[in-house]
């Protein structure tokens, strides 16, 4: 059995650890594949850290937290966090008898490279979680300037880790192609595709829950319930979504649009006045999300068409499909076009050339689609079990 240390670097509020990685790590432990410890660097306050620690303990995962200072510039605080905690990380590797270290994305990779010789002397395997295309994402939408000192530093860290890691995990084949194109001397055999799966005991189509939620939302049988679940921001093509909804409205389609999200601040002032009575924000507990997806008729997964989207495997697409929900998807996201392009459960929208009428015509038929058939497709492609199979192959 592998003894893994997973190192991650986060902001003050994240939920992907408990909602994505804890179930995956718990599943690997139940399969006898690995024992996993998590080390998180973040700006989270003590209350949030305690919350995450309690969730980790509930699934028998050892969790440690290293705070990043909020009183000095971010770049300086990050450097201090790395330099000041190298010895602590090495001591954890020794005391916990770690034999595999997985740094997730660029900053944990920076930390590992700074103690690379010592980690190798301890006999550890290095698996780099390349996490999509994070540097390109910062160029596309995070304000990072191409050719700047910070860009050169981050690119150098990623390049060195790609070269020195024993294995690299990504979520899309297009990410692998990107890295091999930039570093053609790399051994393609060191790359492994892993999923972002959900538990099929939680995410499935529930007809009773559908009726209950629709009644709660005071929806008629004829009204189309459209849902966007998850994060909001410039990357999610919200303006395009509202233009599509205006087209639906002009065509006389009866619908309601709900956003399931923890933080709806981004929508302030962005909902067109003519749609305001049709748009609703819903903050619901994670375990209630499947009920709302069962109640919905159409799921939304739109992303701006920038180079970094080729590295993305949206968790929400798996959630939608596992709940039997037909889905409108931006063309070009990760490998989704090749995986789902032939399925009538999805409509792929090309941002540069699309027809509102074509989207409308497809949407008019979503209520008549086979929800159980879509659920089965989602479980086949995006279930936690499928994800565990991919992780087991990568870490064995």
UniProtKB/TrEMBL annotation:
<protein>
    <submittedName>
        <fullName>Glycosyltransferase involved in cell wall bisynthesis</fullName>
    </submittedName>
</protein>
<dbReference type="GO" id="GO:0016740">
    <property type="term" value="F:transferase activity"/>
</dbReference>
<keyword id="KW-0808">Transferase</keyword>
